[in-house]
């Protein structure tokens, strides 16, 4: 059985919905794997939303490990602060020593993992752009797409590295933003000054919202399809590189067709 580690800060409803989606896919047999543990960098009683997430994990009888990154940092001496994340990761790894998983998924985990953690655990993370696309937050990605009048965008899962958004793409899906219903909004935007548009909030711009909506619809399906592809051996990590089932190095495994079927 393919074994998964699940890392989350459990900040809101999205974290709960994603875990539920993954667990339902496992229970239905769509994904032949199991979640061996859930790790959360918050502890019970710290945040109401996180408590809801922790209760959900318990309802699935998944082993739960909580270790507050906030409390850890608050208890450090001033001279220890520069390296607090390294020391925190070391303690996390110590607490996870009893688990041997094939793949760990960063699912709303709000800490950047350090080099030692990345070496010990094969970890993948979501980024709201296709391989070679813009970096940064989802808002920064969408603005970049609009400014450069991009033809396509997508969502990818990439290998987690200490450098944010720099890990090699593991899987991805892409879609055109130059077809309907996008094209009419591009035409409207073309009649306005881009500089004047940028003074507005992103969610006031129809094209901005549309790109975000289509990306969001693909995020959960991509995460599930990625775990499925890994569990079936269609894609894997070998010596820090992403390879296909035949061991050939690839720049991400394209799951666009599978995701398009889900979001139709």
Layout: helices, strands, pairs:
Layout: E1 2-8, H1 13-27, E2 33-40, H2 48-59, E3 64-66, H3 69-74, H4 84-95, E4 103-106, H5 115-120, E5 123-127, H6 138-147, E6 152-159, E7 169-176, H7 182-190, H8 194-198, H9 206-231, E8 235-238, E9 241-244, E10 253-254, H10 256-263
Parallel strand pairs: 1-2, 1-4, 2-3, 4-5, 7-10
Antiparallel strand pairs: 5-6, 6-7, 8-9
Helix pairs in contact: 1-2, 6-9, 7-9, 9-10
Describe the structure.
- The protein is of the alpha/beta class.
- It has two domains: about 1-120, Formyl transferase, N-terminal domain (Rossmann fold), CATH 3.40.50; about 125-260, no CATH class.
- Helices cover about 40% and strands about 20% of the residues.
- The chain contains ten helices and ten strands.
- It has helices at about 15-25, 50-60, 70-75, 85-95, 115-120, 140-145, 180-190, 195-200, 205-230, 255-264; strands spanning about 1-10, 35-40, 65, 105, 125, 150-160, 170-175, 235-240, 240-245, 255.
- The strands form two sheets. Strands 3-2-1-4-5-6-7-10 form an eight-stranded mixed beta sheet.
- Helix 9 packs across helix 10.
- The longest helix has 26 residues, at about 205-230.
- The model has no long low-confidence stretch (mean pLDDT about 90).
Return residue spans where pLDDT drops below 50 for at least 5 consecutive residues. none
Instruction: Determine the structural class based on helices, strands and strand pairing.
Output: alpha/beta
Helix tally? Answer: 10
- Find the count of extended strands (DSSP E, 2+ residues): 10
β-strand amount: 15-25%
